[in-house]
Design brief:
- The chain is built from 12 helices and no strands.
- It has 312 residues and is an all-alpha fold.
- Helices cover 73% and strands 0% of the residues.
- Bound molecules: fe (ii) ion (FE2) (2 copies).
- The site of one fe (ii) ion has 6 residues, from α6 and α7.
- One fe (ii) ion binds next to α4.
Length: 312
């Protein structure tokens, strides 16, 4: 299977990659990050005679700051993603052009979220820089995924990132942050479409192999931000706030792509492919049940929290 993935299938997908790259270049807007940052709000920090950072300078709710920092640090780790993607799909032809174009677009995301956070004092700059150093030194290792697995993972991951940016923007209750994150989410959407349509083409060529890759990536999905310092604790806070939780992951990330790929209607699977599909259905049911339990527990906790008691 690995030999097939790394060789024949990639070659068969070359024309699809080229067509998807052309479509992407025709639909992607060249937007300007500096037009999304309220520069006049910026002021000096202590070294230039200004005020040092403190939390009350920010207009953002604390969990919005946490979510924005996780999103930013996730975007910051781009050198690792660039290296991983280049390793998985190579540097030749349309794939090589895509790897560099995608990297250039992703590079905007970290720089403008950082600009927004520094200018509006939404982040402790020292803590952010230490976390950035730690994140990039940890790097991101996808575990040497074969190319088909990498495409499936990236379709899920781009959609997850789109949803995370969108929901973070709404949670900020700041029109400037919401506009910036909505703009970034549009980039992530086009990236998702690129990988999504490659996977759809792969299903037509090699349904059983592609289904195995999909099942593996559903089962093993890990957010790229998992190497951010304190990620587990922050992910819980982000889930408690409803910005990104298991219900959202199941309903808004996994299921839309699985439906688009017609995973449960695809014909021509071999016996192993059929077994994998049954296992995938069981895994999704289990995830759905966990999501329901999480939402119920969260509602209970919130009903008994001191804030809700005092609201009467
Ligand atoms: Fe991004
Ligand atoms: Fe992206």
């Amino acid at each position: 299977m690995i030999a097939f993935e790394t060789g024949a299938l990639l070659t068969q997908l070359d024309a699809v990659v080229e067509a998807n790259l052309d479509r992407h270049l025709a639909s992607a807007e060249d937007w300007m990050p500096h037009e999304y940052v309220p520069w006049s709000e910026g002021r000096n920090f202590a070294v230039f005679g200004g005020e040092p950072w403190s939390a009350e300078q920010s207009r953002l709710p604390p969990i919005a700051r946490t979510a924005l920092q996780v999103n930013l640090l996730t975007e910051d780790n781009l050198p690792s993603y660039h290296a991983e993607l280049g390793r998985a799909v190579g540097r030749e032809g349309a794939w090589g052009a895509w790897v560099n174009r995608w990297t250039a677009e992703e590079g905007r995301h970290a720089s403008c979220i950082r600009d927004y956070l520094l200018v509006t004092r939404g982040v402790d700059p020292e803590q952010l820089e230490r976390a950035r150093m730690a994140t990039l030194q940890a790097g991101f290792d996808s575990g040497g995924k074969p190319p088909l697995h990498a495409c499936v993972y990236l379709a899920f991951q781009e959609l997850a990132t789109r949803v995370a940016h969108r929901n973070t923007g709404r949670y900020c209750e700041d029109p400037v942050a919401e506009r910036l994150l909505a703009r970034i989410a549009m980039d992530e959407n086009l990236h998702m479409i690129f990988y999504r349509d490659l996977v759809r083409a792969a299903i037509e060529i090699a349904p059983s192999d592609t289904l195995r890759a999909i099942a593996d990536e559903v089962a093993g999905f890990v957010m790229p931000g998992s190497v951010v310092p304190g990620f587990a604790r922050k992910a819980v806070q982000i889930a408690q706030a409803g910005i990104y939780d298991l219900r959202i992951h199941h309903d808004d990330v996994l299921m839309p792509l699985l439906r688009y790929w017609r995973v449960f209607e695809t014909e021509g699977l071999d016996a192993d492919g059929e077994r994998v599909r049954q296992d995938l259905a069981a895994a999704l049911d289990a995830l759905d049940a966990r999501a329901t339990r999480f939402i119920a527990r969260r509602a209970e906790t919130q009903a008994w929290s001191p804030a809700s008691q005092s609201r009467g």
